[in-house]
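Can anyone check this?
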Amino acid sequence: MHVISRNLGDTDYQSTLVEMQTFTASRTAQTPDEIWLTEHHAVYTLGLNRKNVRLPQNAIPITLVDRGGKITYHGIGQVVIYLLIDLKRRNLSIRQLVTVMETSIIELLAQYQVQASANTDAPGVYVDGKKIASLGLRLKNNCCYHGLSLNVDMDLSPFDAIDPCGYVGLQVTQTKDLGINQSKNKLGEQLLKKINENLNK
């Protein structure tokens, strides 16, 4: 099943969110699925599960969003991929799509001899207990949007001001600190390709 891949470059988080919502609201049964590759300037995004969230005490803006989950951080040097997928047409559950995303990241890191794993209790991808990728989706009329972020070569310190995804003391890592000397653009393109392959298996 055909998927249109778009490389958006640097984008503003809020305007990209509106574009995803608009795309999903206006799509029909014939609209091809799309996957968007981008990165955002520094922003915290706060999901629908806002109970007992420790809010950062710094100058980085916080945006309320309509995905599942709690709080995470996006910044330059992070690969962000949004999946605008008609799940019903593909006969996929949200859980199966999450597995596609996690598996694609794990396979990508394995190419660089980095062993990563998923955690059924806390969606995302981890290396030695540290989180390297976050996931969050929103489902509307059997179509989803939002997606994943993979830390590549960024300033990780803003994560210290929050409990990433609501987990107190959860540490984060990135590909650069794991000895992967590959640009975010290259890793983003490779991850896009893997997601495409795994979606169409």
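Reply from J.R.: I decoded it. The two ends are 10 Å apart (CA to CA).
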